[in-house]
């Protein structure tokens, strides 16, 4: 993942988005430095923000972006500023083409009616992309967590890093050329660990990429080569990160993780298991971006072999393939495994239920519960969000899963940790969009003025 941004200088060259471990703070930072300063020759023109609200632009945009400030009154309260300052800030964000300010009053309570705030539907977009174990997906994303319908593509015949990343960049460029909205960046969610700050891929088990592949640099090169059209920023900022980390970021900002102080997300997508932890709004990624590799937590020492070389990892015991193995069934090779596994899990709750599916779900849920209990003992989260196939397992066997976690968890006997289903569709893509938007949420003045 990219390194954390400690200042809000507008980018003047190719830059990767700020680290989502440091998301925009909804409160104005005390003593924060005013962004700006001398502009280098040839830099894009940017509108000067009013001095009194200059450092509030990022926090204000973050509040509107996450739906916590639907009115100017709510924004005034959240920022703890005067109505005049809130008006100046929203006026600047509107002038940048990022939000709309509806002067028609909102609400019927006491006091002066407030103006409605919303993301500008004609505002800029970013490209969000994801590499799955068996496909690629790409979409356009505006602010506010909105995604266009994702486009799914088959993996290229050769899955070496350069060809894979070139396919992603070209698919994103095709989408950018198809829209009349400005394109400000692109970010990619990967199904493997990504180190920080250098952006190398480790243990790319699905594609046998060499360990230490400089994926961030390679992706940036392919993005530079692709034609994103006349409405895209040039050069287009790019970024890469782990898909589970990005899914957790999306759930915390726009879904089931809202307001959680210590959010644990565990997911199983097309293959394998991922996890992430958000603490006080910030991703916890460890010293080098490799924390929370929950897929390699052992839940059955005598279990199935894992691609990492061990046995009985959460990866090998609770992913879509594991469900078919537990059921003694062979999936259709011509149909995506993930969708088949979801259908198999749901058949355990059919009327009447499929007994084979019931037994398989019980087997996998027990192992998932063991893994979650171990994580709860170590991390003490206040909420667990399950997504992917695990969301379906939770829907089919909520009481069984909760009971296993409570029985094996030190804290479960005194107070159960809520285990809730994810709410964000295409969370990996949504998180990639968050990553691409990060520099503009940190500093909205980095958005070029004027419409496409």
Which range best describes the helical content: under 10%, 10-25%, 25-40%, 40-55%, 55-70% or over 70%? Answer: 25-40%
Number of helical runs? 13
Measured on Cα atoms, how large is the radius of gyration?
Answer: 23 Å
Based on DSSP secondary structure assignment, what is the total number of beta strands?
12
Q: What is the rounded distance between the termini?
A: 30 Å
Overall spatial form: globular
Can you give the mean pLDDT? 85
Low-confidence stretches: 1-18, 21-50
Textual characterization of the structure:
There is one protein chain. With 452 residues, the chain is α/β, with parallel strands linked by helices. It has 13 helices and 12 strands. It has a 5-stranded mixed beta sheet, sandwiched between helices. The longest helix has 25 residues, at 355-379. It is globular and about 65 Å long.
